[in-house]
Amino acid sequence: QVQLVESGGGLVQPGGSLRLSCAASGLTFSWYTMNWYRQAPAKERELVASHSAGGSRNYGDSVKGRFTISRDNYKNTVYLQMNSLKPEDTAVYYCSTLVRGQDYWGQGTQVTVSS
Fold first, then answer.
1. Which of 37, 74, 105, 112 has the maximum number of C-beta atoms within 10 A of its C-beta?
2. Can you list the positions of beta strands (E) in 26-90?
3. Are 27 and 33 in contact (CB under 8 A)?
4. What is the band of 4 on the pLDDT scale with cuts at 50, 70, 90?
5. Residue 89 in 3-state DSSP?
6. Contacts 24+ apart (CB under 8 A), 26-31
7. CA distance 54 to 71
């Protein structure tokens, strides 16, 4: 059974940084694209960043130049380094992957950007 567990969220001031982690189990991690999504209150879930098995990375327009996705295939972990955080980055951040046609999601980690 695929399991994804996020960590690293919290309260940070505008302009600050956080690094999120997502530990994966139950899959051959290096084979799969890993994604970070976020959902703010009363808003739809949006793709923040994705990292393919082949190494390509994609970012949502709102985070380009500020966020960096990376992965460690030995630790079965994907990271999201978030810099220059803004209040509009406040959301629950989710890790996800698609394995054999099924979507898997973590429980989410709250990121709050506020002074």
1. 37
2. 34-39, 46-51, 57-59, 67-72, 77-82
3. no
4. very high
5. helix
6. 26/1, 26/2, 27/2, 27/97, 27/99, 29/71, 29/73, 29/76, 30/73
7. 11
